[in-house]
Amino acid sequence: MKGLSDTSPDAMRVLIDCYRRMTPARRWKLMGDEYKFARSLHTCGVRSRNPQATDGDVLREWVRFKLGQGPWSPHLRFDMQGQPIENQETIRFVIGVLETEGIGYAVGGSLASSIHGVMRYTDDADLTVEPFPGKEAAFVSRFDPKEYYVDIRAVRDAIQQKSSFKIIRLSIAFKVDIFIRKERAFDQSMWQRRAKVATPDLIDFITPEDVILLKLEWYRIGEEISERQWNDVIGVMRVRKGQLDESYLDHWATELGVGDLLVRAREDAVIPG
Fold first, then answer.
1. Is residue 159 part of a domain?
2. Considering the entire predicted model, what is its pTM?
3. What are the tens digits of pLDDT across the range 88-123?
4. What is the mean pLDDT of the chain?
5. How far lies 14's CA from each of 10, 155, 240, in Å?
6. In this structure, are 21 and 137 located in the same domain?
7. What does the alpha-carbon distance between residue 33 and residue 85 come to, in Å, rounded to a whole number?
8. Region of 34 on the Ramachandran plot (φ > 0 left; ψ -120 to 50 alpha; else beta)
9. How many domains does the chain have?
10. Could you give the CA distance from residue 229 to residue 53 in angstroms, rounded to a whole number?
């Protein structure tokens, strides 16, 4: 699935080389900068339409634009004082709660593909966590309901069903999706292989191989139409070329039923010329 691109093969090689040289801490900072840039563009848009818009008006528009209506709507607050905590600080806070409660975790999704491959803007975070039955109330109690939306019923259901629940930082409309680790063999393998990355804090991330496999699986589940998922896979494969455990990829791609997608991804990851 080769998508349209305005980047020449030579320019692409230069970009990939830049990503290969970039430290995780540098990537982490740039991802935060991208989020702030998106916020600033949104602010300019609101004020171009309404020059009289206050900071509160801008914040209200951002939250409603990112979240829309949902069970969190009655909890939204727009009278925050000072600067809101930004996305990466929110991620670190959630991880801190998990660590305090002794709950293992691993960062995945677009954050992991940005750390291991080509960076892109994201307005949410995906974390896989080990099941924590009996700790639901203690976990939820660490999130101030004036600042965060976390539904304890959703937490309990996710743990029981091995599904997911959401944590939303209300003041900035930033969402953290928490996926409860499944018991299938692949998820156990992914869990054992997770590794700490200096961002500059030491944070547990899933490995590049597991990013590729999970995103190929999500791509298939999504009827193979998500260019973002596909491009994330290609980005990791290009940046990590020569460093990936190809036999591991072959084995689990077959087990997950995405072996044909892995073949296509390897083809698309080759830069022409």
1. yes
2. 0.84
3. 889 999 999 999 999 999 999 999 999 999 888 887
4. 88
5. 6, 44, 14
6. yes
7. 14
8. alpha
9. 2
10. 36
